[in-house]
Amino acid sequence: MRERLSGNEAVAVAMRQINPDVVAAFPITPSTEVPQYFASFVANGKVTTEFVPVESEHSAMSACIGAQAAGARTMTATSSAGLALMWEMLYIASSSRLPVTLAAVNRALSGPININNDHSDTMGARDSGWIQLYGETNQEAYDNFIQAVKIGEHKDIMLPVMDCFDGFITSHAVENIELIDDDKVKAFVGEYKPEFYLNNKKHPIAVGPLDLPIHYFEHKRLQAEAMRNAKKVILDVAAEFEAMTGRKYGLFEEYKMEDAEVAIVVLNSTAGTAKFVVDGLRERGVKAGLIKIRVYRPFPVEEIAAALSKVKAVAILDKADSFNAAGGPVFTDVTSAMYGRADGVKAISYIYGLGGRDVKSTDIELVYERLLSIVESGDIGEIYNYLGVRE
Amino acid sequence: MSKIVEIRWHGRGGQGAKTAALLLADAAFNTGMYVQGFPEYGPERMGAPITAYNRISDERINIHSNIYTPNYVVVVDDTLLDSIDVTAGLDEGGAIIINTSKSADEIKPKLKGYGGKVFTIDARAISMETLGRYFPNTPMLGAVVKVSGFMPVEDFVSDMEGSFKHKFASKPQVIEGNMAALKRSVTEVVEL
Prior knowledge:
The complex is a heterodimer.
Chain A: E1 2-5, H1 7-18, E2 22-25, H2 33-43, E3 50-53, H3 57-70, E4 74-79, H4 80-85, H5 87-95, E5 101-106, H6 120-124, E6 131-135, H7 138-152, E7 161-166, E8 174-178, H8 182-189, H9 216-245, E9 252-255, E10 262-266, H10 270-283, E11 288-293, E12 295-297, H11 301-308, E13 313-318, H12 329-338, E14 346-352, H13 361-377, E15 384-387
Parallel strand pairs in A: 2-3, 2-4, 4-5, 5-7, 6-7, 10-11, 10-13, 13-14, 14-15
Antiparallel strand pairs in A: 1-8, 6-12, 9-11
Chain B: E1 4-12, H1 17-30, E2 34-39, E3 49-57, E4 72-75, E5 95-99, H2 104-107, E6 117-121, H3 123-131, H4 137-148, H5 153-167, H6 173-188, E7 190-191
Helix pairs in contact in B: 1-4, 1-5, 3-6, 4-6, 5-6
């Protein structure tokens, strides 16, 4: 069904179509409009969900954990400082193997105080044990949210999933979108039937007890194994989703990479602006390509390295700084994946767009020009760079 | 590459420039086009300068930056001409549309030598006479559709009637006034 919606509206519609058992969310800033839209569906009787408006984001995630552990399909949404306040509980959700679904609208962390888009919030949560999907558009935010439920709840996974998309640029902009019929979404996600849950009198379990050195490590090892299993399940779910909608998803998108000599690796909405630039460069005969990472956790190590092994130079763009004095998180992950697999490919880092600094097509052009000059001269020059900042 | 029409709105918080951009996106969407409608977010307070944007195209729109070289600029409040560089990057083959009751002699010197077409409309007078209050966004919407010509004015007017009926379902008394404002705006926008 052809529609035009903001990213926040689109995700709220996905939630309505799924009709989860519980949505627990902090109903005001720094959370998003998603709980606000969803609350109207609850009030208007469009869903049968138990909506729990809580007094903080810490409580939101705590309530999600309680509900999901009881056996309920549970969802929430947040952003920025809200995600930061959930921090402690993010780890509880993943280690307790509770497939909560979280719409994570990417926005900067304070301070200085800033409400605009960058990826500091979810990049900080990259090691919390959550699966992380990133989307370029309202369409991808919607499609990823629906797939997230099926991925997280798979018996080999049982991990929570974040559906990440850019604050304001995607969350508040109205754009075209193709919605899936309600009954098809419901059939796609199916019923949530966990193997173990607290409200099962026939098979009593404990969730979240003290785990001393005799067992803790084994539990973390199993959690890591679930993340390893996720790659296959994510691709299986994507194949099923493609059969339903015709829209193809993978671990990452390769745009004009077949014969590319220079490439950019980027996440979320900037990928669209970079595609616009690649199209322009291609018209001029420049062999430019783009890789847009969709699945950041688990990280597609072998696949990314294979895709980049064919280019001569690559720039990895981060909308978050690691403050490690050595490039952002995506750069560190991509170059570590390339080690021993794509040796000889020159890789540089750019930190860009912090705190909502707009990313212009001319900024992206500068990066491709830099890559072309590296290929021509053979000299990599400065590896750690900032894009669009006043020095 | 597809031809994208880019429109930049300059207004003040509370005047409805963001809503106008979203309504314009709606109207273009309803004619089968691909659209973007988005504001630039900052401190949200009454009277502060705000910017909103539209992209409209026959094909899918990938670019997600703000708009720096618009085909059209809409100025919802003429006091912004003194403080904001409203013609920055504006296509000389495009146009600027300004809500003002001032004369060409007063307006033109404020446009930094912009060589394209300049249109004005007295959205305040239209709004006060049709709605009884100052809501400049509806007349400005009519003006930008008329001037840009990206969709037939008749289609736009009939489409907006549907949008108003939906938007103002709880206060139908304002639908007639908004429709009157829209119809007047498409005839009263003039080139300087």
